[in-house]
Amino acid sequence: MAKNMVIVESPSKASTIKKYLGKNYDVVASVGHIVDLPKSSLGIDVDNRFEPKYIVIRGKGDLVKSIRKAAKSCDKVFLATDPDREGEAISWHLANLLEIPEDRKCRVTFNEITKNAVKTAIHEPRAIDKDLVDAQQARRVLDRIVGYKISPLLWKKVKKGLSAGRVQSVAIRLICDRENEINAFIPEEYWTVDAHLTQSRKSFVAKYYGRNGKKFVPSCKEDADRIIADIDGAEFTVKDVKKGKREKTPAPPFTTSTMQQEAGRKIGFTTQKTMSVAQQLYEGVKVDGAGVAGLITYMRTDSLRISEEVQALARNIIAETYGKEFITPAPRKYKTKKNIQDAHEAIRPTMPELTPAMVKDNLTSDQYKLYKLIWERFMASQMSDAVYDTVTATIDAANHTFKATGSTVKFAGFTVLYIEGTDGEKEKEATLPELNVGDKPSVKELKSEQHFTQPPSRYTEASLVKALEEKGIGRPSTYSPTIATIIARGYCVRDKKLLVPTELGMIVTDLMKEHFADIVNEKFTANMENQLDEIEIGNCNWHEVIEEFYPKFSDDLKKAEEKIGNIELKDEVSDVVCEKCGRLMVYKHGRFGKFLACPGYPECRNAKAIVKETGVKCPDCGGNIIEKKSKRGKIFFGCSNYPKCDFTSWDKPLEEKCSVCGSMMYQKMGRFAKKYCPKCDVKEATKTSK
Hints:
Elements: E1 4-8, H1 11-21, E2 25-29, E3 35-36, E4 44-45, E5 51-52, E6 55-56, H2 61-72, E7 76-79, H3 85-97, H4 115-122, H5 130-157, H6 168-184, E8 189-199, E9 202-211, E10 214-215, H7 221-231, E11 237-248, H8 256-266, H9 271-283, E12 285-287, E13 291-293, H10 308-322, H11 356-359, H12 365-381, E14 386-397, E15 400-411, E16 442-452, H13 461-470, H14 479-488, E17 492-495, E18 498-501, H15 503-515, H16 522-536, H17 542-563, E19 573-577, E20 584-590, E21 593-597, E22 607-608, E23 612-617, E24 624-629, E25 635-639, E26 648-649, E27 652-657, E28 664-667, E29 672-676, E30 683-687
Parallel strand pairs: 1-2, 1-7
Antiparallel strand pairs: 3-6, 4-5, 8-9, 8-16, 9-10, 9-15, 11-14, 12-13, 14-15, 17-18, 19-20, 20-21, 21-22, 23-24, 24-25, 25-26, 27-28, 28-29, 29-30
Helix pairs in contact: 3-5, 5-16, 5-17, 6-14, 6-15, 8-13, 9-12
């Protein structure tokens, strides 16, 4: 029988750690929290300094008994739950259930699940950090009070199943406020005038700047036509050439927030999927030649700190792979933002020597994509700056000024490995021919084009996470569940990558703004996060934070109950007739977007997906191929004559026929897709529209 017991949160983590510690250790999993506030009641004693009333989570009674029994026969019990507030709270609850004294050194934490890190942690236990526990309790109590007090009000006044939350209500407000900005936006017309010029047989474009040295933006066609008329036939002369050097610094290694953003931009992962796959990489994967190991450090962090040992290893790998000129003279240090807890490192590979190519065969497709992203981002963060030679030429024609800018790569630096993604289209910088003062490039074409100013774009999951982080709302662990919740509640839907508020989301947000202004106030919520941080470092008492918050909140709640009348939500009516009862079906919003439902519910429960035609005929029966969604929300294509015809395909069927065999061509899904024929070897790369 084992002399020591180690309790972790997940079975997969337990399995990995067991392999490191050997037969003298029994490693068991609590499978997350073992106690929590009851679901059936508030579970907080508002008259006794808001003390929480914890109960063993339903279904975990047998697990608790088995852990208690096993612990009695062990010499030592180590609590090795995740190294954050939630993990500390789980360890505290376990210590209480196992009657472990508060001052006993039983808590072990590791930033990475590797043999060395785990063994070192076991030999350096500490007492449970009660400040960390109090910060988690304060957050849990705050969220419970807000959720359990406002949600029933929304059920009664608007619709059953709704919810409000300290972070989620601010998140949906951001989405709704952005939609209001878009709807209120009035586009303004403007024109551009470009001169397509040639110098030394090389073509380049100079953009219109203004007249007589003063900047001017044409606001109508007449302005643009006037400029072209003035310079038509005029001689273009280079008046000034400014050459310079620009250095570009690599992005720092990932925090939770930046990982979620970049995974959304570059590999199309939702925040939820990113965190799920990151958890798998952290907890342990079997790798040929390395055994079972966690491939990345802990994935819930907002620190940019990196271990000096690993940094030195990464620099050696870079120097050996690319050359010494690709590392900086001294190791890079990235400055972590103010008020960030620096307990963990940034997200990095635990073993930088394991390149993505080396572990590819041991990983699922999703695991490989995310590991590659994390590995490349980390390694690039330790590399030299990219250096560009820049040139700006000022070119005059008939008192009108044009400017041409360009750059060339002088030294690629970190860009040989990694280039950070962007939320929008990035304009490509041109390469200019050699230009000198006095040169007179010839004119190929003068071109004017009409434009309109654009409204702000809707949030994507990546840009919403960025906004929440910048405003200090929520913490790394909250972004993913927050977005999942507002979609699940029907407050917004994903339209491709964009988050679009529903009518329900707009109504609930307007109610919250009117009656619970503090809860949806960005600064109020950010300040509350700061107070939780102060509790964590022992500067603030958690009871006092709740006592300060509750009186005004309670008063707002009473007023809202009196003032809010019943709100009737009207569903958008479609032209699709319900085949069961004859009513016109209405559009509803669900977890995976819009669907059709009968308004006669509960008498008629008919519901179905919205049919999206592809315009392509089924190769098996000649029916229409339509776009469908799987139970997990993944798009696939099938025949409209199902179940008589069972044709399905994950790839998009095309009208285009194969030039070799005449069979139907298909197209892979994704930004850079490939057309292919499954019956022969015809393939064609194509960039799909966004």
